[in-house]
Structures are given as structure tokens and as C-alpha cells.
Amino acid sequence: MAKDMTLLWAAGSPSCWRVMIALEEKNLQGYKSKQLYFEKGEHKLKEVTDINPRGQLPAFKHGNIVLNESYGACLNLEDQFKSQGNKLIPDNKAESALMYQRMFEGLTLFQKIAQVLFYNLFVPENERHDSAVKRNRDNLKTEVKLWEGYLQVSKTFSRNLLFWNSYLNFLFSLTVYLGMVI
């Protein structure tokens, strides 16, 4: 079943990890997996652009189906393999609505993480403003507190959200590791 799947991915990419976690949760082993390196420009190789013309990762192919957006790949895996492995989407309508809300709301969290990371990485030090650094960090802290509240509530929520909770816990660990949350 998974033998006709190919995942091209890169370390350090939450989008790639998202698909990898979904594959694990659905017990889909034996797929072709290849790690590529952004710093070597490998995401622009023909092998990638044949699957994803944008040259972005993840690049995921299942038979004739190509899914390069990680949420699309995760949702498709759940749809194709509902009865296999762990359920990624709850059956309960209220729980599934909340799951979709948090899934797309997570893009805001990631954007705020990126604002902190990219500002410090790409704005030359002599052009940085302490007020912008503080504003970005404060916005991230506020967002993380909001998500911490969500996670407290989700502890009493359905087991079906294991996948999403695992992913969110990883993001929080990453922010702490990077020293972005003080």
C-alpha cells in the first residue's frame, strides 16, 4: 500500500514533519522517503520539481496523486486510510470543527514564529530596531499563551486529536529551544 508513496522532505521543516507524522499515525510504512537539504539547494532538483514545480518541500506522491501542500496530504491520507492506524479527524462534528479551526489557526502561530526567526536571520543587525524585535517577540508570546490555553482544554478532549496535539507540542518545544519564549 505505502510502497507506491514517495515523500521528499527536509529536516527543519514543520510542513514535512506534518506529513511524516500523519504517515506514522496511519501506520503507513515502506514508502520511499528521501531527505533533502535546503542549504544545498536540493529542493530545486529535477527530482523535486517533477513532483512539485514550485521546488518546495514536502513533495508527496501516492500513485498518480500528487499533494505538495502538507495539510492536503494529511487530509488525503486520512480520507484514503480511514480505518488504518490512528484516526486523524474526529467523528464528532463539534470536535472535527474545532480540529479544523485549530489546524488553520495554527498558520497564525507559525507566522508569528517565522516573524521572530526571519527578522533576526534576514534583517542586517545594523538595520534592526529593538522595538520591532520586542513587538515580534511579544506577539509570539501572546499567541503561545493562547495556544497553551487551547492545549489545557484539549487534555480533556478526544484521543482523536493525538496527531494535532503532537504537532503543536513540537512547535512549542521548538520555540522554547530557539529561545523565543522567555
From TrEMBL:
Regions crossing the membrane: 161-180
Matches recorded under CDD domains: GST_N_family
This protein's UniProt keywords: Membrane, Transmembrane, Transmembrane helix
Residue ranges of domain GST N-terminal in the record: 3-85
Pfam families, A to Z: GST_N_2
Keyword Transmembrane helix: yes
Superkingdom classification of source: Eukaryota
Family label: Belongs to the GST superfamily.
Name of the protein this chain belongs to: GST N-terminal domain-containing protein
